[in-house]
Specification:
By secondary structure, this protein is α+β, with helices and mostly antiparallel strands. 26% of the residues lie in helices and 12% in strands. It contains five helices and five strands. A three-stranded mixed sheet has the order 1-2-5, sandwiched between helices. The longest helix is centred in the N-terminal third of the chain and has 16 residues. It starts with 27 loop residues before the first strand and ends with a helix. 28% of the residues are buried.
Length: 207
């Protein structure tokens, strides 16, 4: 009912409203950490790794569908005792060679010499080049290497379902279970402070 318009013979005002609901997501970045440690050979009747691969591929397929793949990326983080970045990413982040921390070409895992496991982005140029082997004797079913090789390296910021599927299928098992290290890489690659390194990797033609 009107308070003043009734003086002009307008006793009521009609209110018309419409609404709709929609669900969408844009610019989504996801980190998927996958355990490729030696314990993944266990399991009966299906080995853990044999259950992990199709589950991971299904996750990638669901996340990178035709509606979302142009605005969604996945950081695939396979881990055993360490997380391998692969030689191109390792070299770009550490400025290796010639002045970075790389000591050999058998592994591409960057360590952190800081005494505290903080949330800060480490200085990769002063980091540690993790050895590619461990001290445990070889166990049937997985390699006794501390750092995975490039075939099991992480993939950063990808929306290429085929590339991610191929890496999931090719992953080999290695010694150690560095879940805390994998989680740090998974979170760090989603951190806004990592953008400087993303630009660095882009400039190097790695991403």
């Amino acid at each position: 009912q009107t308070f003043f318009l009734h003086l002009f013979q307008m006793e009521q005002l009609q209110i018309v409203a419409a609404s709709t609901a929609s669900e969408y997501a844009q610019n989504v970045e996801i980190s998927l950490a996958l355990d490729i440690s030696g314990s993944m050979v266990a399991g009966s009747p299906t080995r853990r790794i044999d259950a992990l691969r199709p589950a991971a591929r299904k996750f990638v397929q669901d996340v990178l569908n035709e509606r979302t793949k142009l605005t969604t990326t996945i950081n695939l983080i396979p881990y055993s005792g360490q997380v391998s970045l692969g030689q191109p990413v390792f070299n770009a982040l550490t400025n290796s060679p010639p002045s970075g921390v790389r000591k050999h070409n058998q592994s591409s895992c960057i360590g952190d010499r800081s005494t505290s496991f903080s949330s800060a982005i480490p200085n990769f140029r002063t980091g540690e080049h993790i050895p590619h082997f461990g001290t445990n004797p070889k166990t049937i079913g997985f390699e006794p290497w501390q750092c995975p090789d490039d075939a099991s390296a992480a993939i950063l910021l990808s929306n290429d379902e085929d590339v991610l599927d191929q890496r999931i299928a090719a992953m080999k098992l290695y010694d150690g279970t560095g879940t805390h290290i994998a989680m740090r890489w998974a979170i760090m690659t989603l951190d806004n402070r990592f953008n400087t390194h993303i630009r660095q990797l882009n400039s190097a033609g790695v991403l």
